[in-house]
Amino acid sequence: MLKVMHVEAGENFYGGARQVAFLVDGLARRGIANVVVCPRRSLTARRIAELPVTLREIPMAGDLDLPLLFRLRRLLRDEKPDLLHLHSRRGPEILGGLAGRWHGLPIVYSRRNDHYESPAITRYKYRLYDRVVAISQCIGDVLKDSGVPPAKIRVVRSAFTPEAVTPLTRDALRDTFGLPRDAFVVAIVAQLIRRKGHAVLLDAMPRLLRDIPNLHVLFFGKGGLQDELQQRVDADQLGERVKLAGYREDLPQLLEGLDLLIHPAFAEGLGVSLLQASANGVAIVASRAGGIPEAVRDGVNGVLVPPHDVDALAEAITALAHDDVRRQALGAAGRRLIADEFSVDAMVEGNLAVYRELLGDAA
Q: Which residues are in the Glycosyl transferase family domain (predicted)?
């Protein structure tokens, strides 16, 4: 039986960790044994533990956690996988690559962000990997432009399938967050980090509140900007209209009660929260940045605006707030798009094809 070790360093169960869960569950259904290595006592570990995999929890402390190299080497020696699949930055991408090379394993690295790396980094870093899986065509193009040999790159887009939950009604969502029943509710679902563009939406709030008097905003997620964003909300006297709602494990139940998902990011590999919103029939307003246009088709399941453009963002949100028919049509088209082009089965088969390239008959 083929055995794959996966390394995911995400503490919280954000988009990347969720993709690992989809992948290992799909691989297990195909008779493949999976060992998942993730941070000790993390939400990711708790969610992965629900799947038919071997879970190994270890300390992970980022790029400077040099002992991680030896922890991973020890796990590789004990588990004896046929292939190593690295899913994260912040430690595993380099230290995991070195550990895998030490054991002579084929190594696959999933690249999830769309930033360019210097030629010096590219020249040495990507020698560690036999294949690099880009989760969007945009990232595949960035890798090529950065000097990664095209023969190493495979594009396997992220996927999504909605969880089998009973969604909250519109009224119940509003009651949960103490909002008026007639509130027009929009949300950003993203880590609280600068590139996700929360500040752009805050910049648009004066115009939005003028044009949509019943507007309320929820920020779902955690991150380093939490205090800064709360201070901005307080300074702009937006506390009655903007709530930092934190990371919510019950997000799948909440999404269908939203009126719009907003994603004003100015750098994004693809955006799993966008797939999640579309799978739940929520229309989207997002930036035309990175891989976002692969997940949000302008005029199909959402509206795209230039990144950093406060006026364009406000105009798009306002137009959809006043057009229920169009907003609902975009949401319905999003469900169809996810079913047609972002199936978990296609993502699992795409990764499995990469494994087979490297392992031949052993896979």
A: 171-336
- Give me the phi and psi of 80, to 5 degrees please: 50, 60
For residue 173, give the H/E element and its range.
Answer: helix 170-176
Quote the CA–CA distance of 283 and 299 in Å, as a whole number.
10
Cβ atoms 274, 296 nearer than 8 A: yes
Q: Where are the alpha helices (DSSP H) in 236-343?
A: 251-254, 272-279, 292-295, 310-321, 324-341
The matching CATH number, chosen from 3.20.20.140, 1.10.10.10, 3.20.10.10, 3.40.50.2000, for 170-341 is 3.40.50.2000
CA dist 269 to 89, 154, 227, 288, Å?
13, 15, 26, 12
In a 13 Å sphere around the CA of 155, the CA atoms on its Cβ side amount to: 15
Domain parsing of the chain, residue ranges: 3-159+343-362, 170-341
The token duo for 132 is 């690099």
What is the DSSP secondary structure assignment for residue 164, as one 8-state letter?
Answer: S
Report, in this order, helix, strand and coil percent for the chain, each rounded to 5: 45, 15, 35
Query: 3-159+343-362: which CATH number, 3.40.50.1820, 3.40.50.2000, 3.40.50.720, 3.10.129.10?
Result: 3.40.50.2000
SS3 of residue 135 by DSSP: coil
Q: 5, 23, 127, 106: which is closest to 350 by C-alpha?
A: 23
Q: What is the per-residue pLDDT for 65?
A: 87
- DSSP per-residue string spanning 44-113: HHHHHTTSSSEEEEE----TT-TTHHHHHHHHHHHH--SEEEE--SSSIIIIIHHHHHHTT--EEEEE--
pLDDT at 298: 98
Looking at the DSSP bridge assignments, the partners of residue 262 are 285
> Which residue stretches of the chain have pLDDT < 70?
361-363
Q: What's residue 361's pLDDT? A: 67
Fold match between domain 3-159+343-362 and domain 170-341? yes
pTM metric for this prediction: 0.87
